[in-house]
Amino acid sequence: MAIDASLYSIADADRLFSPSLVVFPELIERNIRHMIERAGGPDRLRPHVKTHKMSEIVRMTERLGVRKHKCATIAEAEMVARAGGSGSDILISYPIVGPNVERLRRLVDLYPDRVFRTLVDHPEGLAGLSHVFNDPSRRLSILLDLEIGMGRTGIAPGEAAVELYEALWKSRGLAADGLHAYAGQIKQSEPAARRIEATPGQTAALELRARLVARGLPAARLVIGGTPSFPIHATLDIDGLECSPGTTTLYDASYNARFPDLPFVPAALLWTRVVSKPRPGRVCLDLGHKAVAADPVGPRATLLGLPDAVAVIHSEEHLVVETAHADRMHIGQGLLAVPTHICPTCALHKRAYVIQSGVCAGEWDVDARDRQISV
Length: 375
Description:
Blueprint (H helix, E strand, L loop, with lengths): L19 E4 L1 H15 L15 H9 L4 E4 L2 H10 L5 E7 L4 H11 L4 E6 L2 H10 L7 E8 L11 H12 L3 E9 L8 H24 L7 E3 L5 H4 L7 E3 L9 H6 L9 E12 L2 E4 L15 E3 L6 E5 L4 E4 L11 E6 L2 H5 L4 E6 L2 E7 L10
């Protein structure tokens, strides 16, 4: 689906440094509202903050009624705890091991009015958490992480998963809190094909939940899916469902092209300039892969206004493209680019320009781009 360039006018773009990240709050809010609507209400939504890593977007999300958040790092969890209000619900959907267990303990102690949760998928991980979180009067909520097709983390939803969940339920300082199921391998463009691909994992997670409940184990919460499978899981009419898309908040060129059925629009772009015209038909931009994510394989950004641009060199500080418009472009000319992959792109920038009503209205910090904030 073509990107609507008219959404991204910046009247005072000449004063923006390049390369830089620029965000459009009106479009971010539009995306969040679409997420809430698609999920069936704010209580059924737990968006992943790893996409943006920004306190201001957490605050916007909470103003719109979403109090549940998902993150990948302790720094992201601390960012959410700082930005959110009392009762903010924070799930770290990543195995917490080694010294990070003590860090999580300190974070939980620092924000007693926030709700923290994390995952476990192995008895050794469970032992490490229960060693540090051993106070039965203040239990840490733990979800069982299921492997439903991606092969990255998680335990297969079979008898071993039942046994691990039962061991979790018996742990002194941990509270069995339900299931987490992510399948990032689901990326088919056609909605019907995505549904076919998503159904087995979804069914396995629901069947395991039924087995746990039949044994008298509390397992009402089910956090499931990412962005591509979001509209599929959102149709489930069950209590305790929480959809956890992430990219939908800011969106990017890859998802915009791949999933025309989704109503989201890119809301975080990059501002870049022509720094050289080394030969006819070729321009060099200051958009190296230290400013835009170096994954996936192929073009890393879509240049608005240059539909014929073909990247021929991409290095640390340079993006060289060939275009029929090169001879008419001038040194210092600015361009907006839509990143192919927005999540790691945000992490490359310390702050973002905020474009409100077509002008720069300030900057937002990318608070959680580092691995550590305070704890």
